[in-house]
Amino acid sequence: MYKQNTTTLKELFSVLAAGAIVLMVVHTLGRFVYTPLLPYLIDDGQLTAPEGAAIATWNYLGYLMGAMLAIRWHRVSHIRILLPAFLVVHVITTIFVTQTDNLTAISTARWLNGVANGVVFVQAPALILEWLVLRNRSSMSGLVYVGVGLGLLLSSGLVTGTADWLEGAARWWPVALASIPLAIWGARRLIKLDVPDQVPGNDGKVKAKTPLIDRASIPLFLSYAGAGLGYILPMTFLPLLAKLELDAEHWLLDGAWLIVALCTIPAAWVWNKLGTKMGDIPALKLNFLIQLAGVLAAVIVPGALGLLLCAALVGSTFLGTVLLTQRLGRALHPHQGPRLSAAMVALYGFTQMAGPWLTKQWLDAGGTLVSAFGIGVGALVFGLLFVFFVPRPEAWHARTIPHD
């Protein structure tokens, strides 16, 4: 079997750092920077709140489509071409929105940016996980998501640090410029990884594709769908909710997103460690409970306290949901690799797209933003329920008739 056990710690952390950086670029400097930007863009008169929700929906539609592209082109040979290409798409579309106030143009650019996000968010962690598995280091896979937490902090600083001297479309310039060197370094490191196009099994043979949907994966997919819808509302609208609920000078207007960022930074390491110690399924149940408490707090605890709890609890958990679910999926179907990861992210992307769309319908119908967070509460309850139906990987593979 193709396996290397001589990889140095320096090489391991270099690869994890490259993955973390490209996720920082597409997922935080691409997607989540829009969350702290949105209240400023509304104040500048560039967008209304419903228009902002519609643009977010276009971005999430792109994310879904990008993940679906990654299902089709999932081999390592595909990744070596598509990953750097879509990092270029991210940079171009981010520069483009610095030049226009046209709603259609912004929506189109954010849709394309979402496509790039979806492809890279699938392919970079999946490629790194395959590389780690070949080196018996799969337990380190969750550390690649540290880049999202660091990126949230960076995006918060870039937005609030330049808020007083930029306006409208120009507010996108800091993240556009920051993306360029980071994308170049991360892409160059990842496309050189020594991973075969199709990874052989223990017998040295390449395994045939197995079904993506079966009795093991269905509850995991449904759980992940609930997680996607549950977390996306606070991660899109929390600063806007703070603006609606708090006084004009309250520190949480900018501080809510900063708290999310600070709590996200150690989250990947914490949940990676908890999954290794407790088992991924018990850790995922705990993760859902904490995240549910956070979104519920925004609904039932008015004002600053509810916003503070939501920011801290959601920020400290949503990356854990991603890394634990992805690792569980591969453990249940070890020969699916990037294809399984892409399918899960596509489903996650669909439910994330539904969140802003449902919020827009709710606001247009006269509902309040805080009551819209109730959608997230229900989604997380749904997701938690289905975790209880996910089989333990070792029990699944111990059946009389193997699936993989």
TrEMBL record:
Keyword tRNA processing belongs to the record: no
InterPro entries per the UniProt record, alphabetical: MFS_4, MFS_trans_sf, Sugar_transporter_CS
Q: How does it sit in the membrane?
A: Multi-pass membrane protein
Source organism = Marinobacter xiaoshiensis
| Xref: PROSITE patterns | SUGAR_TRANSPORT_2
Q: Which UniProt keywords apply?
A: Membrane, Transmembrane, Transmembrane helix
The record's subcellular locations are:
Membrane
Task: Spell out where the chain crosses the membrane.
Answer: 12-34, 54-74, 81-99, 111-134, 143-166, 172-191, 212-232, 252-271, 370-390
Gene3D superfamilies, alphabetized: MFS general substrate transporter like domains (1.20.1250.20)
Decide whether keyword Membrane is in the record. yes
Q: Give the protein name, as stated in the record.
A: YbfB/YjiJ family MFS transporter
Please give the coiled-coil regions recorded for this protein: none
